[in-house]
Amino acid sequence: PMDGLSLAMTLQGATPASTPPAFAESDYGKPHYGWSELRAIRADGYKAIDAPKPELYNLRDDPKELNNLYAQQQALADRMIGEAARLARELGGVTPRVAAQPDRETLERLRSLGYVGTSALPAEGTRGPDPKDRIAERREYNAQLSNAIDDLRGGRPEAAVKPLRRLVEINARACDLHQFLGEAYETARQSR
């Protein structure tokens, strides 16, 4: 009565007749960074990724996914991406709920208190930037965060405050940044 595929024959050494398609999706980047959501599907030795800049990989020839074949095999990629979209609808894919935007006065008051960053969530029905275009930015962000946490944990809360405030300006949605910044302020206050 369970949804799935028995692996009993495979465990006994039989080669499966076919591998069913595998579907994946991520909406993490949309609410946290304003980036686009992503969907992917693997089937018949290929992997297609539905992103603002679509991707297609031949996993047999390119298991590390280094050579994007989308331009050369657009029809195949588009069919696979369409199948991923169908599966997302069928499975009830994750759709982040977008909260109503506060009025201008409330937004300005929150911004003056440091609670609102400059990046906005993309409007519903639109896609944000492609996450792969933001990899270098994210690595730098993570390095700065790691250094600030090292300062905080190393008993140097004052040194952690400035980089944490810069990171909050970059991404005010990151709850952990506010937590670390609050901890830095509290620890600095207690050490005086």
SSE layout:
Layout: H1 8-11, E1 22-26, H2 29-33, E2 38-43, E3 46-50, E4 55-58, H3 74-91, H4 104-112, H5 135-153, H6 157-170, H7 175-190
Antiparallel strand pairs: 1-2, 2-3, 3-4
Helix pairs in contact: 5-6, 6-7
Structure description:
With 192 residues, this protein is α+β, with helices and mostly antiparallel strands. Helix content is 44%, strand content 10%. It is built from seven helices and four strands. The chain has helices spanning 8-11, 29-33, 74-91, 104-112, 135-153, 157-170, 175-190; strands at 22-26, 38-43, 46-50, 55-58. Strands 1-2-3-4 form a four-stranded antiparallel beta sheet, covered by helices on one side. β3 and β4 form a beta hairpin. α6 runs antiparallel to α7 (175-190). The mean pLDDT is 83.
Question: In brief, what are we looking at here?
Answer:
By secondary structure, this protein is an alpha+beta fold. It is 44% helix and 10% strand. 15% of the residues are buried.
Give descriptors for this structure.
192 residues; alpha+beta; four-stranded antiparallel sheet; 7 helices; 4 strands
**Main beta-sheet annotation:** 4 strands, antiparallel
Shape: elongated
Q: Share of helix among residues?
A: 40-55%
Total of helices: 7
Strand order of the largest sheet: 1-2-3-4
Total DSSP E strands: 4
**CA-CA gap between termini:** 64 Å
Q: Which parts are unreliable, with pLDDT below 50 for 5 consecutive residues or more?
A: none
Mean pLDDT: 83
How do the helices and strands follow one another from N- to C-terminus? HEHEEEHHHHH
